[in-house]
Amino acid sequence: MNDEVKVKQLSVIVVGAGIVGASIAYHLARQGAQVTVVEQATPGSGVTGHSFAWINPLGDFPVAARALRSQALVDYQRLQQELPGLKINWSGALCYTDAVLDSKHANDRGTDPSVNWIDRQQIGQLEPHLQVLPERARYAPGEGSLDPIATTQTLLEGARAHGARVLTQNPVLGLQVDGKRLVGVETALGSYQADCMVLAAGCGTPSLLQPLGIKLPVSASPSILIRFDAPPGLVKTLISNNQLEIRAAADGGLLVAEDYIDASGPQGPDAIAQQAMATLRQSFRGAEGIVLRSVEVGQRPMPQDQLPIIGLSDQYQGLYLAVMHAGVTLAATVGRLISQELVQGQPCAELSPCRPARFNSDHRPL
Question: Looking at domain 93-141+220-303, which of 3.40.430.10, 2.40.340.10, 3.40.630.30, 3.30.9.10 is its CATH number?
């Protein structure tokens, strides 16, 4: 009974309605918290909308984040049970980059039961339109992808169904403090107060914290997302190789993720998109007629040490940070764990390497 009273009394403002903020809002509201989401534009309009959206627990990442990422697939499967409108394409991922095929790296991954090493014939069965087949590849049948904006909307609808309110087109102008406690946010549409403020505003988080004297070592890491119109079924799985990352989009087209090199010129986004189109036409039978639809540059929030920044501030009470790269992969898991910490008051061991206090010179524990 005491726990129920605590849940009903907890009020939380979530700043940012990307996929991470939407997941946090959904999980909090589902646990009984009074949730208000404040978004400066429209849901998913920031880095979420420019995400390749690969649910990839086996990517390159700091070892300290392994416990978080290892739960991604199970948490997304759980969300599909809870939210029937959530669509995920569990296509599996086919990887044959140099790093993956390196013998030492292969041995490191070889003990993972969710990953199979397959030969050229098996690759051809998975990708019948692929013209040049590698000798072997790592195949993770349980991995998948999603439409990040549609998923964000579904999570917010789930949050609303549990009583949350979502305020869009409402920029946060500042954070309200009372001594060393955060008590609310000042927005373009007025001020709102709550017991706790969760900042999930991606690259915008450091500027919100600056007036409080908090320097958050997060920088914007650009990446390129390219969209093509293509014949349906051209690419069956999610492919990651030395040239590109490619998958089918929910609308039947193709999505390609590329590294950002320069703002313009021969290594700018437009030139890279043309190179990607040439690569696709050479790599897949039937790709001769693909058409470039759009080229987008997204700004990923990249913490200095590449680890997510998740947890209560030790400088201001009522302030909780949730800033990370690989937001799509981590969203379902961090939403569940953050809700557990705030609503149930139970610190999660998986989040212990991610605490904001690691950037403080005196490194005081939370």
Answer: 3.30.9.10
